[in-house]
TrEMBL record:
Gene3D superfamilies: YVTN repeat-like/Quinoprotein amine dehydrogenase. Belongs to the WD repeat Groucho/TLE family. Residues 2-97 form the Groucho/TLE N-terminal Q-rich domain. Keywords: Coiled coil, Nucleus, WD repeat. This is Groucho/TLE N-terminal Q-rich domain-containing protein. GO terms for cellular component: nucleus; synapse; transcription regulator complex. CDD domains: WD40. SUPFAM superfamilies: WD40 repeat-like. The lineage of its organism: Eukaryota, Metazoa, Ecdysozoa, Nematoda, Chromadorea. WD repeats lie at residues 398-439, 440-481, 522-553. PROSITE patterns: WD_REPEATS_2 (PS50082), WD_REPEATS_REGION (PS50294). It is found in: Nucleus. InterPro entries: Groucho/TLE_N, Groucho_enhance, WD40/YVTN_repeat-like_dom_sf, WD40_repeat_dom_sf, WD40_rpt. One of its GO terms (biological process) is chemical synaptic transmission.
């Protein structure tokens, strides 16, 4: 008997439901696989950086070994008695033998006592201080009398063990990403929650200054001191290493401990990668990456501006006396007094004026003229509004022929307006003559962000089509295009016109060179990067994201200067003209004004 129509329909519904269920399961599995893939990639980059750091440490250790051998033979040995000179030379020969293992009768490398089979391949790579023979040598001539006076019993001879030429081999283990290095192990440094340091769980990081005077006198400032600092971090006894009583290979967790110590010393996991020809390598920061004139160390909250709606745009007046915040359907103006910035309390007062605009649509960009008398407002509407701030009246509506304007920029002479539109075009508008000048097509999806070079000859734009484009404004044509695997949400040009920073939907910040085929990738954000702004000095820039974070980066390589967490997503930001203030707009329906510490 043939099934009825209703039965067939019911069976089809059941099959459709089962197929949807299977489809959802497949999507969940695919998402899980993609997450695992990303985690594996991050782990690989971390391991690559650890390997690079170890190679550099080994090279430095080899240089230290060479200098110390020359120092012992040329300076220390002539000061010893003949008996001790013979012991010294014998220990030196033993050290050389351990560094270059010989084969025994079975074809295997001959090892010093206490080393297991298979360890020969690592002997030549061990930093100074891990080698038992050299440890024995220094133990003999720096601790032989038990009181630290050395073989000759002379403080003068002991002091000669410090080679003044080894200063460049000294490793600074102060961890700028480790919150426990300051304030007695508190979880903040310069107003920042540490999210990247392996040591953020509460382990403190000792500094070089914490070594005792006796230890400094008993050892050179090269690889041995660095190893002892690492061993201290790793929970190993540095005295055992120095005296040759610790067998590295007998501890199954030794290498893990040393790797963890190196992570603490270097600020693991890696968050900055230099990419050349598509190949990423962890960035090695210079010694002054996080310090120096014009380099900020943190923020202090000065004002809370309760807008009442989600703040999608914010800007600071050139003279620091006003802040403008854009939310839903209005821009609010806030007065900033000198006492607000210099005081010790967080100011909280109502706005002094409200500009009703864009008919209950969200405002996405506010651009203030240099004289502080005119404000451009764009957002989720088909017009860009021009407001006279002296009369608080709207003087012009610029039609864009698009459903939304996501970002605005002004030419240096403030005659031309550039607007990113939802249809992917970039509109050029002559404000003085009140007419459209040109449209730059190119983005296949919405143009989300833009910025001008300092001289105003080039325009950089980012879009939801996963691309960043550079435009020649003289010829009004596209000069270059950079493709990514993620949508572009924010963008900023460095005032020196050498770098462009891009905030991505995939949580990364990409720093592009305008002159070379290299870039930096910064991975400290945990969610999409919603806004980005360079300091007017060009020495640093900030980025904010859906992860509630504000990150400050050193230009261009992205050394983390500080990180600050707000309670909700940070949607917008601006830096004052003198680089003294930062304002952020958040999903908490308020803006926050911070003073920058240097």
């Amino acid at each position: 008997m043939k099934p009825s129509y209703l039965e067939s329909l019911e069976r089809i519904k059941e099959e459709h439901s089962e197929m949807n269920k299977n489809l959802n399961q497949q999507r969940a599995e695919l998402e899980k696989v993609n997450t695992e893939k990303e985690n594996m990639h991050r782990s690989y980059m971390t391991y690559a950086e650890v390997a690079g750091t170890m190679r550099n440490d080994i090279k430095r250790a080899e240089e230290a070994n060479k200098r110390l051998q020359e120092f012992i033979l040329q300076t220390l040995s002539p000061l010893l008695s003949p008996e001790h000179q013979a012991s010294c030379l014998a220990a030196m020969e033993s050290f050389k033998s351990a560094s270059s293992p010989r084969e025994n009768g079975n074809g295997a490398a001959a090892l010093p006592p206490g080393f297991p089979p298979g360890a020969a391949g690592m002997l030549g790579m061990l930093p100074f201080g891990m080698n038992p023979a050299m440890s024995q040598l220094f133990n003999q001539f720096t601790s032989q009398n038990g009181d630290g006076t050395g073989a000759g019993g002379s403080e003068a001879k002991k002091a000669k063990l410090e080679d003044p030429d080894d200063n460049e081999l000294e490793i600074d283990v102060t961890n700028d990403d480790n919150p426990s290095t300051t304030n007695g192990g508190a979880g903040h440094k310069n107003g920042r929650d540490s999210t990247n340091s392996v040591a953020s769980s509460g382990a403190s990081t000792p500094s070089i200054a914490s070594n005792s005077a006796k230890a400094r006198q008993q050892q050179p400032q090269g690889g041995l001191q660095s190893l002892e600092q690492m061993s201290f971090l790793a929970g190993l006894n540095p005295n055992m290493l120095r005296q040759g009583g610790y067998n590295l290979f007998s501890d199954p967790h030794a290498h893990a401990k040393i790797a963890a110590a190196m992570s603490q010393m270097s600020g693991r996991p890696a968050y900055s990668f230099k990419i050349v020809d598509g190949v990423p390598t962890p960035t090695l920061f210079p010694a002054d990456a996080q310090k120096g004139p014009g380099i900020p160390t943190g923020l202090k909250k000065k004002m809370e501006l309760n807008h009442g709606e989600v703040v999608c745009a914010a800007t600071i007046a050139r003279d620091n006396t006003r802040v403008y915040t854009g939310g839903k359907g209005c821009v609010k103006i806030w007065d900033v007094c000198e006492s607000d910035i210099t005081g010790n309390t967080v100011a909280n007062r109502p706005s002094i004026a409200t500009l009703d605009c864009l008919k209950e649509n969200y405002i996405r960009s506010c651009k203030l003229f240099q004289d502080g008398k005119t404000l451009l407002i764009g957002g989720e509407a088909s017009t860009v509004a021009l407001w006279d701030l002296t009369t608080q009246m709207k003087t012009l509506d610029l039609e864009t022929d698009s459903q939304a304007c996501y970002a605005l920029a002004l030419s240096p002479d403030e005659k031309l307006l550039f607007a990113c539109l939802a249809d992917g075009n970039i509109l050029i508008y002559d404000i003085h003559n009140r007419e459209k000048v040109h449209t730059l097509p190119g983005h296949q999806d919405g143009a989300s962000c833009l910025d001008l070079s300092k001289d105003g000859t080039k325009l950089w734009s980012g879009g939801l089509d996963n691309s960043v484009r550079c435009w020649d404004l003289g010829q009004r044509k596209e000069l270059a295009k950079h493709d990514f695997s993620s949508q572009v949400f924010s963008l900023g040009c460095c005032p020196n016109d050498e770098w462009v920073a891009v905030g991505m939907e995939n949580n990364n910040v990409e720093v592009l060179s305008t002159t070379m085929k290299e870039k930096y990738q910064l991975t400290q954000h945990e969610s999409c990067v919603l806004s980005l702004k360079f300091a007017h000095s060009g020495k640093f820039f900030i980025s904010t994201g859906k992860d509630n974070a504000l990150n400050a980066w050193r230009t261009p390589y992205g050394a983390s200067l500080f990180q600050l967490k707000e309670n909700t997503s940070v949607l917008s930001c601006d830096i004052s003209f003198d680089d003294s203030l930062i304002v952020t707009g958040s999903g908490e329906k308020k803006a926050t004004l911070y003073a920058i510490d240097y």
